[in-house]
Design goal:
197 residues; alpha+beta; Arc Repressor Mutant, subunit A; 3-stranded antiparallel sheet; 10 helices
Length: 197
């Protein structure tokens, strides 16, 4: 799903909006309706940022529905306008499970106080691991595109993940242009069954 969102959303869509779009895409019904309760938005630390919703609306990706029309309790209800996103994973139950795992990972102790770009990068690293593995490799340009990290800022982002003990180490191979990393034990525990790629 992260790769799909990288292609579907405009390049200028920031990491916080991508985290919001990810939760929306994974939690939407088969018809594209989604409701993100206020508590979930607080957990994401995105409840005070209406500009994220506005950015997704301007991109033509979703439209928020008025609270009175939906009858839903506190939170935000929207309709996805991108029908293709719902075909990216097979079942709603699997998407909801992936959304819960992604939320747990991005709000774990090592990541909860980091910027959204760092959280999204850690999530992307975790989803690019084979089951049971804590080390992986990915093309540097792919991770910057998926996470909306400016190319010059990737090293600083990865350094912050090491400092926060979300990853143990990382390295860059100029020959292959790959980033290699090892997920920390704290995130490896959260990583189990995270599947948002």
């Amino acid at each position: 799903m992260l790769s799909y969102l990288a292609a579907a959303l405009p390049a200028e869509t920031d990491a916080a909006a991508r985290l919001l779009a990810l939760q929306g895409a994974l939690r939407a019904t088969g018809s594209g309706r989604l409701h993100l309760p206020a508590g979930l938005l607080r957990s994401l630390r995105l409840n005070q940022q209406p500009s994220l919703w506005q950015g997704l609306e301007q991109a033509g990706w979703l439209i928020r529905l008025p609270a009175g029309v939906t009858g839903a309790p506190c939170g935000v209800t929207a309709q996805l306008l991108d029908a293709t996103v719902l075909t990216q994973t097979p079942r709603r139950q699997d998407r909801t499970h992936a959304a819960d795992k992604a939320l747990r990972l991005t709000s774990c102790r090592a990541l909860r106080n980091l910027p959204a770009s760092d959280q999204l990068t850690a999530l992307a690293l975790a989803t690019h691991l084979s089951p049971g593995s804590k080390q992986g490799a990915i093309e540097a340009d792919r991770i910057t595109r998926v996470c909306a990290v400016p190319p010059g800022a990737l090293a600083a982002t990865l350094d912050r993940l090491v400092a926060a003990r979300a990853t143990e180490w990382w390295s860059y191979d100029p020959g292959t242009e790959d980033i290699t990393w090892a997920l920390s034990p704290a995130l490896a525990e959260q990583h189990t069954n995270v599947s948002t790629e």
